[in-house]
Amino acid sequence: MSMIDDVIAKVKEKDKDQPEFIQAVEEVLTTLKPTEEKHPEFVKAKIYERIVEPERVVMFKVVWEDDKGEIHVNRGYRVQFNGAIGPYKGGLRFHPTVNLGIIKFLGFEQIFKNALTTLPMGGGKGGSDFNPKGKSDREVMRFCYAFMQELYRHIGPDTDVPAGDIGVGAREIGFLYGMYKKIVNEHTGVLTGKAFEYGGSLIRPEATGYGLVYFTSEMLASEGMTLEGKTVAISGAGNVAQHAAQKVNQLGGKVITLSDSNGTVVDMDGIKGEKWDFVMELKNVRRGRIREYAEKYNVPYYEGKSVWDVIRDEGLKVDIALPCATQNEIHKDHAEALVKAGVKAVAEGANMPSTLEAIKVYQENGILYGPAKAANAGGVAVSGLEMSQNSLRLQWTREEVDNKLREIMRKIYKQSVEAAEAYGKPGDLLTGANIAGFLKVAKAMLAYGVM
Ligand code: NDP
Fold this sequence. Notes:
Layout (H helix, E strand, L loop, with lengths): L2 H12 L4 H13 L1 H6 L1 H5 L2 H5 L4 E10 L5 E12 L5 E7 L5 H17 L5 E7 L8 H15 L8 E4 L6 H15 L19 H18 L9 E4 L4 H12 L3 E7 L2 E4 L7 H11 L6 H7 L3 E3 L3 H8 L5 E3 L9 H10 L3 E3 L8 H9 L3 E3 L1 H4 L2 H15 L5 H25 L6 H19 L4
This protein binds NADPH dihydro-nicotinamide-adenine-dinucleotide phosphate.
NADPH dihydro-nicotinamide-adenine-dinucleotide phosphate binds next to α10.
């Protein structure tokens, strides 16, 4: 058994109640095996054992009152996973499925993703099992205030800088930042994803989706292809999905699917122009269900099915798949259906949307595969740029931020390709991204000595 297998086995034993965290550790560490031989200094310093252990886990209760005066108790989390190369950085997720294992998996992945962006950011993640769905704006406000009344003491612009994730968008960041500012009496870059008026960066809302599509374009270019004329399946209908769709449209592709946790719509004419505006209003203003799109535009709606179920069951032809909803949405049978559908590239907007078995199917069938921590790093990259702008007390133009984002996505792609080649896995972006991110963090950890 290799040393890395031993570390994985120990995590499986210690954290057996955290399947998503175990999955993430197994995915990353397995691909790090080529570093074991080349870097005996990492083995000796037990970097692999140290990197799977969070530096700090904060769990707290969040007590709030609904509109009827009833009291609710939720659980809040912040996992400060690794601060070797910069302040902890990573989003907050508000979703009923949130538990410690989910936050640890997200925080662990964030370490490598943040390192890849070329910016100085450590890895962290947080959230709550609070379900914002069906809550009034004032209930969400009271929850966010209560959440921040505890979180504020653990974060800071040079310590830990949270952002949004599932269930945490512009509205929630406004409430959270407002309460932070009130408690500490300071205007600082302690949260990213802020609105432009109070210190946010232009292009931050768009960044994950745009970055995903820039990364996809790099992957396609390596085989002499572009997005022009390609049919694209996107899952989700939230922040990442919306802006991925917008950028695909701008680059001449055709988006034929969107979904939410209730079902999937298929529009073979493309979700663009006025139809895309409708989705923005539906999801961000009215907070309605994607079914309404099918009703308005008279297109098929598949209740209870994911985009990948629909592709499998209806035999749709698709060139590119961009999963942008949630973890483990693409299973082995879905991946096999994507092969049959003629998919040339899968790039992950969501975190860990493909199971390990699904990834294997992509790899065995020559599908270009852009792993989440490289492909969706545009969001945290622009968060890093928001931190820089806050420190400088400046706000850059859309063009400046977009150009920087495009350049960062190019560099992430290049680093991943080069690391894959240098460590004997040419063309394997999963291995390349993991190794490139790991090397930066491991070298910093080594420099600090034993701590
Ligand atoms: P949003 O909350 O804006 O949207 C999430 C979308 O996915 C919604 O359409 C939601 O449907 C759907 N969804 C969520 N959970 C499930 C589920 N269990 N089953 C089926 N559908 C589900 O989140 P984001 O767009 O911000 O995030 C999407 C993914 O991208 C996540 O994996 C996130 O971690 C990742 N990501 C986000 C970044 C960002 O900048 N926002 C950065 C990097 C990664 P419904 O409304 O019905 O819940």
